[in-house]
Amino acid sequence: MDLILYLLAVPFVAGLVCAVIPKKQRLIAELLALAGSIAVFLMTFIIFRTNPVNFQLFGLELFRIDNFNRFLVLFIALFGILVILYSTKFFPKTDKFSISSFYYTSVLWSISAALGCVLANNLILMLVFWGFLGLTLYVLIQSNSPDSKDAAKKTFIIVGGSDCLMILGIAIIWVLTGTLQMDKIFLSTADSTLALTAFLCLAIGAFAKAGAMPFHTWIPDMAPVTPAPVIALLPASLDKLLGIYLLARISLNLFSLSLPLTAFLMFIGAVTIIAAVFMAMIQHDLKKLLSYHAVSQVGYMILGLATGNPVGIAGGIFHMLNNAIYKSCFFLCGGSIEKKTGTTDLDKLGALAGKAGMPLTFAAFFIASMSISGVPPFNGFVSKWMIYQGLITQFQNASPKFQIIALVCLVAAMFGSALTLASFMKLIHAIFFAQKKNEQKGEVNWQMWLPQLLLAGLCIVFGVFAFALPLKYFIIPSLSAFNLQLSGNLIGFWQPELATMLLIACIIIGIIIFLASFSLGSVIKRHKIFIGGEVLPENQRVTGVDFYQTIKEIKIFDQTYALAQKKVFDIYDWGKAIVNAFASALALMHTGNMHIYLAMSIMGLTILLYVFLGK
Amino acid sequence: MLPLFIIIPLAGAFIISVTGKYSRKVSYTITWLVTFVLMVLSLKLLIKGGFTSYNIGGWAPPLGINLVADGLSILILVIINTIVFVAANYSIGYIGKYTSKWTYFALYLVMLASMNAAVLTGDLFNLLIWIEVGGVASYALVAFGTRAEELEASFKYAVLNTVGLLFILMGVCLLYAYTSTLNMADMAQILAQKPDNKLISFVIVLFLIGAGMKSAIVPFHAWLPDAHSSAPSPISALLSGVLVKSLGIYTLLRVMFNVFGITLLISKTFLIMGTASIILGGILAVYQNDIKRMLAYSTISQIGYIFFALGLGTPLGYFAALFHLVNHAYAKALMFMTAGAVVNAADDIRDIREMGGFGKKMPVTSITSIIGSMSISGIPPFGGFWSKLLIIVAAIQAGQYMGAFIAVIISIITLSYYLKLQKHVFFGELKSKWAGIKEAPVSMCVSMIVLAAVCIGLGLLYVPALKAIVLDPAVNVLINGSSYADAVMK
């Protein structure tokens, strides 16, 4: 118990101290934040080694450690350290990147709140931490740029607004079950509309935080104007972990889902995958493109959880972890690129892969790209593979009607994966291979590349040794928190170690053939880019930006894209339009004319008299 | 101890109006001292708890006028005196630009006396008088700037409130004719023995209108946005934070719960009017670009939440309502103070679209304003979150699903207009014409910091030990409506 309190208090107090340290002494704040986060990491390690147990405080069982949340705390703390380390060099002392004095405070408080949220065993307590995280996100988005005010507002309205709905859900749960303790609640959504409403309210909260459609619109909006480490910390990792954590808790622990609801969740998952990846393909901004992928990947996790069978759920949870790893790696790399080149516009980037460019960032980015696209033997492949297996298992066991849904979702997931690969081809080409535009300024400081490479290294390790490490220690044990067990008969067979050996062997053979043919006298020919005989003017260059222009120009797509650009699909803008319509109608009554006001009062009087004396 | 709450501020007002003309310092010192002493006294009363009464001139209740401090009175009394003290402290920095400062402080203390007296008095006619006194002081204070817009607002405020007050007067007369007494406790006991009839229903309607006008509940709300936005900011803080609650909501609660006894019909009326206020205030607030007007509409919406929770008719609902009342009092006072600091810095411009980037220049104002906004919008862990949570839980428990849903939706809208305010005022690029703005004077900053700290700490009222001292006695007054009369007439 004490340990959990310390765990929450250490970053909180460190954050408080950081807030009062004057701006000129930023180094002290940085060191303090770093020390605080490392201390937290060490403590989470102890928690990870603790057996599942509940903790009492004020006579309520406020916290618990179980197999699901104890590995999450470990990773929350890890992301905290990496982002703080990265931030120390990302924000220079002056110019437009200089930050408010609340930056480290907010980062540390975010870590504290995220830890509290996953460890909480009381719904209200969880909501407190959950809501506080929205506030720190709001502050962090605006930590260094004045352009971010609109995006910050939108983010907080969607995230904070969904918290209000969660209150409604929690209130219904309390009235239905008489308890707020998460491990004592069990409801079935098939039984009553109230339980269904409660589930949907909580699910909306989870969707908004994780960024599933249709509550995702804040992520692409905030990404271009938010400092990269902030995106890497919150929307890319902590928010994803928490959102999917909550979804897993409610759909597997708190509620038992009816069949139509499962189908609905799968539908949301599939739509999120496909729609977001299509949006990602046409983006011109590095951070915005990545942010659409951050949305798209959530679809896989929802699909995995919605399958309801052990493989799929394990896959969903593993994908949540993997996604947090490679997605924060992406945003950190994106931040490095932005810092060195001063832009995130793909049109203006190019040729950063070489020695004069950013080789380490390139390596990290490349590995993360392969991982997110599900290329073996990286971690993204393993978790996607498990999700596919979950869907296939579901297909085998389901009724004919449901079989179609499972099949459609499976196709959507695979297709989405292919499109992800496609859009990362574009991204990598545009950033690292396209013709050079800018002066190369070399690699970033070690404080910045180390976190990137560490995360990329995790991508490899979690892929190659998937069964030996992450699945064995983190994911498979966590299934017991939902009273599930991974049975032996998996449909596919994947041995990552062996496969990796084979892959490496192939690559080595390839290199040998290449070298051999080279030494045998073949010559490397270099040609200029073929442009149909036209003369390319000096100021024009070929970038990767228009790779998928043809998709944009297909008949149906072009209109859909145009509508999406106008934000027709944005739930936030719908809400805004509705409220404004009501407001302008009501404003007609409030002109400042006292006679109207008096008339309103008299009308009120008449109605009251009728009500009280009418009978 | 009870008469001190009325005597001290009245005496202070008298001294200021005699000496204030000659020395500005005297009015500052006296106001500060008076409000400080009263705050300490009210806190002492809170800690002592229980039930206190005082017979003026030694005349026992049915004949003489008595002052009564029970749980509900004490709760409101503490809110009044703490906020009035903080606002007085704030006024000292704020009032600099106005002339004839002594009038301001004299009226200020009269308003304080009237609010204290209205909350303490046990006599219905006396209550009416004090409401009127408080009203007159506040009409004058709203018009204190004496520009056209302020005079117009004050005029509307005066007319509509006087109309409301006439209804109360009529109600009091009818009750006097019917029961031959003006003491509220006595009247409650007499009414309890008489059969129900249409006269009582009629009087209830009269009180609903009169006190409803004071509490600015839809459809009697229209005067509030003008009056609250035109007054000097510390007065706006008092009007929205305290006056509406002490003269409006308190009167309604006392009369409905302790004199007439709450009925299902009254509860339903509260519920419906509350819901209407929530929606109307919330939606119109989004539409505003005038910073103080937005806050004023927000007050209508939040008062709606209080009435909505009262109308649920369950103990949890009453608790949530009073909790929300406390939270809103402090948070809205804070918001008006920060708005005052901003408007002061921006040369009396109140349109938020012309501002921007003030956060860098005014860190204290900006941070306290965010804290106040978050508290009213119900973001954890601030005080407002807990009361909003309880209101929604109480609504679900009482089976008011639609009402709970509306409360949730409007609380999203609440968040959105407070974020709109933050976005336009404190964030974004600093326009070149505001390059010279400065942080508010120290006394204003201190007041804002104190209230911000209170807003963060109010969540603690949920902790059983504090709840038992502060909120439970007040809730019990509402749950056992007849206990008031029994205690007074004992």
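qc> Chain A is about 70% helix and 0% strand.
qc> done
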